[in-house]
Amino acid sequence: SILELRLYQGFWLPEHWVPGTVVFQRRFSPRPDDVVLASYPKCGTTWLKALAFAAAARGAYPPAAPGHPLRRLNPHDCVPFIDEIFAGGEEAKLDALPSPRLMNTHLPYTLLPDRVTNAGGCRVVYVCRDPKDMVVSLWHFLRRAKPDLSFVETFESVCDGTVAAGPVWDHVLSYWRPSVARPDRVLFLKYEDLLRDTAANVRRLAEFMGRPFTAAEEAAGDVAAVVELCSFDEMKGLDVNKAGSGTAGRYCAMQRDAFFRKGVAGDWANHMTPEMAARLDGIIREKLQGTGLDFAQGSSRDVD
Ligand code: A3P
């Protein structure tokens, strides 16, 4: 496999994720209004972090304000990786976050601490993406560190499930099922839906976090301001997202600009043969069969 992975409770985790995962599982104690932002890597994590932060913190930081933190700080600095915090013994940083605390993880739902997922736990938002576009995004990302990594090797690893937080289908289903059973606790979003109608999803997100936009905020254009603040072009263009490598540190020792590449749906068609696409689609279709979840809309509509 591309990274050094360990099979941990049914999922392939990079070795360096394991210590933080164990401490997170043991020690994290959520507040009722905490929101855990979860995702499979390369499926819209950074965007979700920005949108949720902009929406949740809009009282303290009006989204249109020039000095907004998201214009000064990378989204990974506004919303910490929760398991990375535990890996670094930095729990005090979590305690210091203002409520509602936002934090993110790439762990599957089944690996989240019971204290998050049980009845008295906290809310969870998940974002997923057409796995074909995830592969493309992942390959471009990993190539930064491993220039000779081939696209085919990346593709094969995803099809095998031997990739960080894989298999991707089990990861997606781990969140899909609870989102159906307990929609008040787990909000399930798709990257392609976010692209199609960002404003509607910002409203859903705010409502889910217990902070729906008021009529006055709507009239003032605050939803549109959040969308604009977090838009791909806006974020990619900011100095803070261009320069240097992330203070996201151990988990993401990657240049910040690696998180802002193209930001579209359907780029898979520029990278894989129709046979490869059909093969991955077939695997996903088989795994998701009968669950009520599919990626068909996202895959057919945007590519011509
Ligand atoms: P591409 O490589 O396809 O462009 P993650 O944040 O989970 O690592 O996902 C990264 C993907 O999200 C990249 O996809 C990146 O370009 C895209 N992305 C980052 N910020 C975005 C934004 N504000 N709007 C839309 N897409 C964004």
Characteristic key phrases:
alpha/beta; 304 residues; disordered C terminus; two-stranded antiparallel sheet
What does this structure look like?
The chain is of the alpha/beta class. It has 18 helices and 6 strands. The chain has helices at 18-27, 45-56, 69-72, 75-78, 82-87, 91-96, 114-117, 131-145, 151-160, 168-181, 191-196, 198-208, 215-219, 222-229, 232-237, 239-242, 274-288, 296-301, and strands at 5-8, 11-14, 35-39, 102-105, 123-128, 186-190. The strands form 2 sheets. A 4-stranded parallel sheet has the order 4-3-5-6, sandwiched between helices. A two-stranded antiparallel ribbon has the order 1-2. The two termini are 33 Å apart. It binds adenosine-3'-5'-diphosphate. Residues 39, 41-47, 133, 136-137, 140, 230-232, 235, 259-263, 267 line the site of adenosine-3'-5'-diphosphate (A3P).
Secondary-structure blueprint:
Blueprint: E1 5-8, E2 11-14, H1 18-27, E3 35-39, H2 45-56, H3 69-72, H4 75-78, H5 82-87, H6 91-96, E4 102-105, H7 114-117, E5 123-128, H8 131-145, H9 151-160, H10 168-181, E6 186-190, H11 191-196, H12 198-208, H13 215-219, H14 222-229, H15 232-237, H16 239-242, H17 274-288, H18 296-301
Parallel strand pairs: 3-4, 3-5, 5-6
Antiparallel strand pairs: 1-2
Helix pairs in contact: 8-9, 12-14
The structure holds adenosine-3'-5'-diphosphate.
